[in-house]
Amino acid sequence: MAPPLTPSALKKQAQRRTGKSVWHGPLDDPVTFETGLELVCASVEAAPELNGVGRLALHIHLLRALSTRLMRVAEPVRTESLRGPVLVVVGLPRSGTTFLHRLLAHAPGARPLALWEVQHPVVVGRGPDRRRAMVRRQLDVLHKISPDLEHKHATAVDAPEECFFLLDDSLVSPSFPLLYPLEPYRAWRHTASVEAAYRSYRQHLLRFQAQTPEKRLVLKAPGHAEHLAAIAEAVPEARFVHTHRSPLATVPSRASLLASLHGRFTDRLDRSAVGQASLDDAVALLKGSQRGRATLPSERLFDVQYDDLIARPSEVAAAVHEWAGLPPDPQFAQALQSETRTAPAHRYALDDFMLSEAEIVAACAPYCVGA
Fold this sequence. Notes:
CATH superfamily: P-loop containing nucleotide triphosphate hydrolases
Number of helices: 16
Distance between the termini: 49 Å
Number of strands: 5
Number of domains: 1
Structural class: alpha/beta
CATH architecture: 3-Layer(aba) Sandwich
């Protein structure tokens, strides 16, 4: 039987686990945090309901997020600045962000964040640091129950990973609706205030910077594109590498990924709803990106076309480094070989999710920028 998924029970468990009890620091937004936690828990019962495995996985995820928040508030970092430029790869999901991020992460002096680090940015409790081992066990289970994920989004414990997990402790994070079918929360997240979430996100980045002060962070999360203005304000050292690919390709590709992720955790997967959620999320990201780009100076934005990235990755990476004022990567050929692999084709189709080309074009075309 899965543990209770209620805000009060989860918060009490996190307090026992950490020995801490202060939930909000001076930069936090208590109202948005409490609303987000309430909505995640309430969404468990909304259609399609989570099954037992889903409830257990979400309980572990929320307990981790709440424990991280308690530790972050209790142990603020002393470092005040990030070594720039901090490269942040953003764009529609499935637009080449992972490939580009991992190429840029190979450069000398680059500091990507590994999967185990973004999921567990702080040590919780006393004793040996078991964060990496915990993520390895969870990843092993994930690969067993969803073997098709490996060719949709390959990852590993130490591989560079999306930094949106660092937003989890604010409870305004894309990780929850990405991993679980939590429709009410998914819809709310696009309307929620994110300024405090990105202030706490910066605190996590400062902690990582303090661990390796001689290196500069290289980050990636497609969803940051929806909130460019907020992250740009919270992280003034950031410079954004924005990838672009047609929503006609990215929307069904992401729907396919969502189906694999959500299918583990519900027994009533609605593929039409998955398709609509993927389209809605794309529109929200494109709208936010359009607004955010209008507020940023051009020197903080570098646009990358997906077709150029795939056809000429060495030229694209070199252009990014030149734009950012960084030296060329002398090990790029080795990096490219490492990140180029043979894998089963990721096959998907609009019909799989009851979507049409006309529907996607009508919804997305007014907001496509930089393409």
